[in-house]
Amino acid sequence: MAVSSAAVQPRPSILSRSLSLLADSRNALGFGFMLPAAALLLVFLTYPLGLGIWLGFTDARIGRPGIFIGIENYQYLSEDAVFWLSVFNTLLYTISASILKFALGLWLALILNQNLPFKSFFRAIVLLPWVVPTVLSAIAFWWIYDSQFSILSWALIEMGLIDHRINFLGDPVNARASVIAANIWRGIPFVAITLLAGLQTIPQSLYEAATLDGASRWQLFRFVTLPLLTPIIAITMTFSVLFTFTDFQLIYVLTRGGPVNATHLMATLSFQRGISGGQLGEGAAIAVAMIPFLLAAILFSYFGLQRRKWQQGGGD
User: Fold this and answer.
1) What is the b/e burial string over 22-43, where b = at least 16 CB atoms within 10 angstroms of the residue's CB?
2) Which stretches make up the ABC transmembrane type-1 domain (predicted)?
3) CA 167 – CA 146 distance, rounded (Å)
């Protein structure tokens, strides 16, 4: 009696059936694609973050692991005038630079969104300050702000606007304004290009309909452009705030926190105490103290994205 071919075929194993089910599941497939990225984040982000939090509760120094001392580092920082000055400098630096970068970046994005000649060339040129390495930009600004050979002071003297050279980096007030200006110059391209990409997604038919209804240019911006651009603004400004708040290279090259700690940010102070000073526990505690501010910026992005409900016809 002939045996049918179906009868002699081996039954698929449990492992092969499981793999087949996983392959047919879109969620499982997506999870599989996310595993490599999750592993990288775990190794290069989660572990350093956890180690930093642990070091903040120890008296670790370079050369010895240290012991657990609880919140002594944070108690010391709460009474440290230099730490609170760095917090003030960081907030001033972040808020001032972020507001000006947003205003100038949005203005530049609106200009680049017009039908200008050679607009592709101008869009590429705008990116140069962002593409140039931060250290090279800082060295260029260091020369521009030099107390003796400043090209900016020379130009202002030649135009008759001032009668003596400006001490840009030697005076506390001037130093704060100088590093903020340098950060704005570097950050405007990122804001402008990102908002420009958002402007490109707004349908022109909305502008045409509003124009037919008699809307002015300000009304077009206020009631068409701004509401539809809100989600992009939320994301862009969140990244801008994060980049600015954690800025290190620009400050370290230009002033190293001086003069008299006037430009010390939390990031540069953490490096000075933890690496240069050898107090790893104290430096880690300063870095951990930055986390609540960063979480606030992330929450700002989250609530800003809720404006998508408005775009989809739901409640705002």
Assistant:
1) eeeeeeeeeeeeeeeeeeeeee
2) 87-303
3) 8
Question: Binning pLDDT at 50, 70 and 90, where does residue 308 land?
Answer: low
Q: What are the residues facing 196 on neighbouring strands? A: none
Q: Taking the model in full, what pTM does it have?
A: 0.83
DSSP states along 162-191: -SS---TTTSHHHHHHHHHHHHHHHHHHHH
Per-residue pLDDT of 187-233, as tens digits, reads 999 999 999 999 999 998 998 899 998 889 999 999 999 988 988 88
The pLDDT tens digits of the residues spanning 221-235 come to 999 999 889 888 888
All structural domains of the chain with their residue ranges: 81-311
Sort 221 into a burial class: Cβ within 10 Å, 0-12 / 13-18 / 19+: middle
**Residue with token string 């969140």:** 238
224: how many CB neighbours lie within 10 A of its CB? 18
Q: Which residues contact 105 (CB under 8 A, 6 or more apart)?
A: 187, 188, 189, 190, 191, 192, 194, 195, 236
CATH fold for domain 81-311 = MetI-like fold (1.10.3720)
Q: What is the CA radius of gyration of the chain?
A: 27
CB 137 within 8 A of CB 250: yes
The CA distance from 16 to 290, in Å, is 49
d(CA 273, CA 284): 9
Of 148, 151, 130, the C-alpha closest to 140 is 151
